[in-house]
Amino acid sequence: MKILFLEIQHEREWAVASIGPAFIASYLRQNKHEVAFESVELDTTVADTIEAIKAHAPDLLGLSLTSRQWQRAKRFVAEIRQHLDIPVITGGLHPTFAPENVLESPGFDYVCLGEGEEALLDLMNALEAGTPPVESTIENIWVRGGSRPKLRPPFEPIDSLPFMARDLLKEQHGVTHMVTQRGCPFPCTYCAARKFHDLYGGIGSYGRRRSHDNVLEEIRTLVDEQFVSYITFLDDTFTLSPSWISKFCERYKDEFQIPFSVHARAETVTPKMLENLADAGCMHITYGVESGSERVRKEIMKRVVTNDHLLKTFKMTQEAGIMVTANYILGTPGETRAEVLETIALHHRLQPDDFGYFVFYPYPGTSLFEVCREKGYLPDDYWQRPANHRETVLNLPDLTKEDVAELYDQFTAIRETAYLKQHGQQLDDSGRDNAVVLNTQSAAQG
User: Fold this and answer.
1) Distance CA 426, CA 419 (A)
2) Quick one: pLDDT band at residue 433, thresholds 50, 70, 90?
3) Domains delineated in the chain
4) How far apart are CA 151 and CA 375, in angstroms?
């Protein structure tokens, strides 16, 4: 039985391929199924994709989708199914938290809710046996026309998962991507990561972390098989556990001399942890600042960290010899123009080495999506509009679309000035949305 995963590109050709299919692929191969991969680039037509599918001759098409990929994927699948009679399954953030919307769209036969390794294996076994499910009898698999399925507990033990299938990841120049954990315990209202905990409430803990032995063995395997120049850890918050980090740093630096980067929260790091990370080879940390307004962070985003704490963390990170990237969100429901200007003011005080700036988008599954729906901020044709981070889709009472556009342009001007000062040349259009930041940004945000 063979599945072909289609990676639907959107807006940016340098986006990292989804890690979900890479985990699922290795698990399916371990269980004697075939897996192929095809990247649908920005200039790839539906006709091109159909020819590629024919060449692979799969029995099942798979897509892992964020909300940003959804509109293009929806169009492609609808047209593909007019020419090819191949069942389609999709999973990932958007299908998990907007499954009815997906199953109402032409061409989709199955939606995978939550984790997909065991669920996809059960589905492929059923298809191979000639008994495709006509009801949602496979846990985690919602069949078109069926009722919502039961969820199976999260995969345990997580160390028993095979390492990601690297042929499904777009890794170049020796830059490698790693994941050491699943789940995020923080209740950020703009991010869907926490909602996975709610999704699995009562049937198991979604938050799990791999052992040091398991993580280091994967790195060892990579070094033996390919050139590795840099490791990007994609965990939402790599610095969750001080004891885990301490032991990791000690063992990593004893065996490897490979620089790496991580994502962290300011309230989870200490001077000693930063010293250990730097000593082990950490070159870069991305922190989510999100807003310069403590009110917005605390009351709207559920991020309880003060500006003073952020300033202290950025300073001690740079003093440890680690580069810092700050991420900001503007246009959050309930935010005022003055509070966005507070974000700009805080940015100048933080003086990060790099920064990303994104217009808020209400991703299905997030708490703020529900707020926007309940308060009528969403346009009537919300489901038909593309998701992006450059303009607001919302009708907000405190920030006009013109306000958001102007403030976004202010961030762009700051970035262009910083780039010109650092590199002595103008940023082209491809750099306006911070390729490096988006390349490592958590998929949890959609």
Assistant:
1) 7
2) very low
3) 2-143 (3.40.50.2300), 171-445 (3.80.30.20)
4) 31
